[in-house]
Each structure stands twice: as structure tokens, then as C-alpha cells.
Amino acid sequence: MAKCEYCGKSVSFGIAVSHSHRRSNKIWKPNVKRVKAVVDGTPKRVYVCTRCLRSGKVQRP
């Protein structure tokens, strides 16, 4: 679910390092919203990241 329908941005994995340099696995999720957008001429609910919403890639009905 945490995937943008327009740019394909999805979760990314890495290692969080604390101040004492202890390492643990970490997940970063994109800021994805469920919005109503025009897809192929019809309004449809899609999951879109806020970067695509702000840049105007998504056409709202």
C-alpha cells in the first residue's frame, strides 16, 4: 500500500545508527495519501505521494 501510483516511490530500507553507534534495521515509508484523481478520463481513488500532489503531476477532478 505504501507505494505511489504515479512515480512508483515505495518503502526504503536502511540501518538506523544511534548515538552510541548501535545499529538496527529501519524502514522509511513515503508520505502516501488516498486521493481522488482523474485516471483515463474517469475519477478514481488512487494512492499518491505528497511530492506528486504538490508538484501538480496529479490531475484532480
Structural account:
With 61 residues, the chain is mainly beta. The chain has one domain.
Features:
46% strand; mainly beta; two-stranded antiparallel ribbon; single chain
TL;DR?
The chain has one helix spanning 50-55, and strands at residues 12-17, 23-28, 32-39, 42-49. By secondary structure, the protein is mainly beta. A hairpin with a 5-residue loop joins β1 (12-17) and β2 (23-28).
SSE diagram, text form:
Blueprint: E1 12-17, E2 23-28, E3 32-39, E4 42-49, H1 50-55
Antiparallel strand pairs: 1-2, 3-4
| Estimated radius of gyration | 16 Å
Shape: elongated
Tally of separate domains: 1
State the end-to-end distance.
22 Å
Order of helices and strands: EEEEH
% residues in beta strands = over 45%
Order the strands across the largest sheet as they lie in space: 1-2
Helix content: under 10%
Biggest sheet statistics? 2 strands, antiparallel
Show unreliable segments.
none
Total of DSSP H or I helical runs spanning 4+ residues: 1
Mean pLDDT: 94
- The assigned structural class equals mainly beta
Number of E-type strands? 4
